[in-house]
Specification:
By secondary structure, the chain is an alpha+beta fold. It has two domains: about 10-165, Deoxyribonuclease I, Chain A, CATH 3.60.10; about 185-230, no CATH class. It has helices spanning about 40-50, 90-100, 190-200, 215-230; strands at about 10-20, 20-30, 55-60, 100-105, 120, 125-130, 130-135, 145-150, 160-165. The protein is elongated and about 95 Å long. The protein starts with 11 loop residues before the first strand and ends in a 7-residue tail after the last helix.
Length: about 240
């Protein structure tokens, strides 16, 4: 099910899709230029902060950012296959990615240079990597590929960028019920402790005969275990 788009503006739009693997948030972004109102640049940061960490997130769009190739400086958000030189606006994007645990998916795949760039400067005729797909760092293994397709007719001077993603259910961690304490069998040879255990077992009250066999067995076994723990003590863990 697709929820109505939110945060709608000419530069920012969020679409939340409820899938069988959980909610997926798609954010379409067109980054303001450096001369724009600085408050506009913070809108993306604010929008990301409103999305639960447990939900998938993909940022799509023209960020006007040349993220470069320096994986050593930005190891958590840049892969080994970036291209070009870092520009000023990309510093802000990379800082945002580090703070929000995001990564630039295009830099994680070894494609041909022409498939890593998406826009050609009209004067210099040099190609740059401006259009990006950004994902959560802990979900990068679900992204199979991100690359540019120059043959697509998109009525724009930017090339089409496609990211292939396989959405997988998140692992659920179920807490295991606490097991019974282990009896310290090293004390079973102690006659005094054994006599105490016999005395405790002798005092066990029988279960109600009207109860089921399973209920009566649970009552008997748990009471005997408690008596043994009381008489012989708990076995300490060995480290």
């Amino acid at each position: 099910m697709i929820e109505p788009p939110t945060a709608g503006s000419e530069r920012l739009l969020k679409l939340r899709v409820n899938t069988t693997t959980g909610p997926v948030n798609l954010v379409s972004a067109y980054a303001p230029t450096l001369a724009s109102n600085p408050h506009a640049k913070d809108q993306l940061d604010k929008l990301i902060g409103q999305i639960s960490q447990n939900e998938d997130l993909f940022l799509l769009g023209d960020f006007n950012a040349r993220v470069g190739t320096n994986h050593q400086v930005w190891p958590t958000c840049l892969g080994h296959h970036g291209i070009g030189k870092l520009n000023e606006i990309s510093q802000r994007l990379l800082e945002l990615c580090c703070a929000k645990r995001l990564c630039i998916t295009k830099t994680y795949f070894k494609h041909k240079d022409k498939h890593r760039v998406s826009w050609m400067h009209p004067r210099s005729k040099k190609w740059h990597q401006l259009d990006l797909v950004v994902a959560r760092r802990n979900r990068i293994q679900d992204v199979n590929s991100t690359r540019s397709y120059h043959s697509a007719d998109c009525d724009t001077d930017h090339s089409l960028v496609i990211s292939k993603v396989i959405l997988k259910p998140k692992r659920l961690h179920h807490s295991k019920p606490k097991g019974l304490s282990k009896i310290n069998i090293a004390h079973t040879g102690d006659a005094e402790r054994t006599q105490e255990f016999i005395s405790l077992v002798s005092d066990i009250r029988p279960a109600d005969p009207e109860e089921s066999a399973e209920s009566r067995w649970h009552h008997l076994s748990s009471t005997i275990h408690k008596s043994a723990i009381q008489a012989y003590g708990i076995k300490k863990k060995e480290y």
